[in-house]
Design a protein that fits this description.
Helices cover 0% and strands 50% of the residues. It has no helices and eleven strands. The strands form two sheets. Strands 2, 4, 5, 6, 9, 10 and 11 form a seven-stranded mixed beta sheet that branches. A hairpin with a 6-residue loop joins strand 4 and strand 5.
């Protein structure tokens, strides 16, 4: 069974940094794009950033120049370096990968930005 497992969430003060990681079981996503979504209370889930297997990236306007998405060398991992965090970045962050038309999701990790 394919699983995506996230780690790295937590509580951070405004202006701080966090690094999220997601590891996929197996290697089925090695040639697929992987990404991060987030969902704040009362809001729809939104794309934060995505990266292809060859490193092409796409970011939401709200996180450009602050967040960096990258793939691990083994390709079954994806990381999200989040800098200059703002209270509006508070949300549950989900790892996502799509393979053969099927979308897979991690269980989510909470990121809270508050003083």
């Amino acid at each position: 069974q394919v699983q995506l497992v996230e780690s790295g969430g937590g509580l951070v003060q405004p202006g701080g940094s966090l690094r999220l990681s997601c590891v996929a079981s197996g290697s089925i996503f090695n040639r697929d794009p992987m990404g991060w979504y987030r969902q704040a209370p009362g809001k729809q889930r939104e794309l934060v950033a995505a990266v292809t297997s060859i490193g092409s990236t796409n970011y939401a306007d709200s996180v450009k120049a602050r967040f960096i998405i990258s793939r691990g060398v083994a390709k079954n991992m994806v990381h999200l370096q989040m800098n200059s965090l703002k209270p509006e970045d508070t949300a549950v962050y989900y790892c996502n990968a799509v393979h053969a038309g099927v979308s897979y999701w991690g269980q989510g990790t909470q990121v809270t930005v508050s003083s």
